[in-house]
Design goal:
Layout (H helix, E strand, L loop, with lengths): L9 H11 L1 H11 L5 E6 L3 H19 L6 E6 L16 H7 L2 E5 L3 H4 L4 E4 L7 E5 L9 E7 L2 E8 L3 E5 H5 L4 E11 L5 E11 L7 E8 L9 H11 L8 E6 L7 H25 L5 E6 L14 H6 L2 E7 L3
Parallel strand pairs: 1-2, 12-13
Antiparallel strand pairs: 1-3, 4-11, 5-8, 6-7, 6-9, 9-10, 11-14, 12-14
């Protein structure tokens, strides 16, 4: 937990405020679960500094929520229990993970203390704002770009490494109610020769009234794509039962900007797929018929849930967002 402020979009700012109030959430849950103990583990360049950081969090919980200090153990160590970074972390990114590893972690065996916070929000925009572009097997290559033009607009997106990419339709429309556009997709073939395909499409803006919907997010540890026990149970016990029959689940994965772009795209896709796997298994047990729209954005800054410019933002960008769209 750190105190650096973050500039985010309105939606993510509301969610970030929950994370910044993490100590208050933990304190309230400790008060409601009187038999539970936690361990606060500080991580810093020196053990003394790490212990001081963890102790300050303990003092806050004790003084603000009246928690018995004997229920909170404090430790200080050089390396965080769930440290960011691996031996494969690029040299130029070591400073970023070093910033993240100066923190206090809350450890507990009671899932009631660590389960995610659920928010009810007002949908500010439709879920299906994306233009979905795909390349087929007759365009072999390692990466590709898409230049979208029309109505006085022209912009190149990419490079993309997967077979499918998403482009925000709002960025293309630029405030227009509709428009006709051309997409020129260029891929560098195995021989090094560019391969280009062109198609046309139309966009039409729909003004939908705001609705109250369900949105969930779960976090992953650094370079991990498997859900930990906390989130597995949260998905099964809290999220799945709230999903109506015939809904569409839009599941999108994200990563921080540490590491290689191609690897992060694959990692975000695996995180989203893992989330779908857990939910799909539980929804089948519940007899729910649900459509999944699952994909990853990698480290794409324009689609990230939070800013990558701070340790907190990078930490929380290791996430999967789950949007529940009720059936019509």
């Amino acid at each position: 937990m750190t105190g650096t402020s973050v500039t985010t979009t309105d939606r993510s700012q509301r969610q970030m405020s929950v994370y910044y109030n993490a100590m208050n959430v933990v304190g309230d849950r400790l008060r409601s679960n009187a038999g539970t103990k936690i361990t606060l583990v500080g991580a810093a360049p020196t053990q003394a500094e790490a212990t001081t950081m963890a102790t300050s969090v303990k003092n806050y919980l004790v003084s603000t929520f009246g928690i018995d200090g004997s229920r909170i153990d404090v430790k200080g160590q050089i390396r965080a229990p769930h440290a960011s970074g691996t031996r494969a972390t690029p040299q130029e990114d070591l400073g970023l993970v070093s910033e993240e590893n100066r923190r206090v972690e809350v450890l507990s065996n009671d899932l009631a203390i660590l389960k995610p916070v659920q928010l009810e929000t007002t949908q500010q925009e439709p879920f299906d704002n994306d233009i979905v572009m795909s390349v087929t097997s007759n365009m072999p290559g390692s990466n590709w770009t898409a230049r979208v033009s029309g109505e006085g607009f022209s912009k190149t997106y990419g490079p993309f490494t997967g077979s499918t990419a998403r482009i925000d339709a709002k960025d293309v429309l630029q405030g227009r109610p509709s428009g006709n556009y051309t997409a020129e997709v260029t891929m560098i073939g195995s021989s090094g020769t560019p391969i280009t395909r062109t198609t046309t499409f139309a966009l039409n803006r729909q003004n939908l009234p705001p609705i109250t919907g369900q949105r969930y997010s779960i976090l992953f540890e650094y370079d991990e794509a498997k859900t930990v026990q906390t989130y597995d149970q949260f998905l099964r016990n809290d999220v799945a039962p709230q999903i109506p029959n015939n809904s569409t689940l839009v599941i999108h994965g994200h990563t921080d900007k540490v590491g290689l772009t191609d690897y992060n795209f694959d990692l975000s896709t695996r995180r989203a797929s893992e989330t779908q796997r857990v939910l799909q298994d539980e929804l089948q047990k519940l007899g729910r018929n649900v459509t999944f729209d699952t994909y990853g954005f990698g480290e794409d800054e324009s689609r990230a849930a939070f800013t990558n410019g701070t340790p907190e933002g990078r930490y929380y960008n290791r996430t999967v967002m789950i949007e529940v769209v009720p059936g019509q």
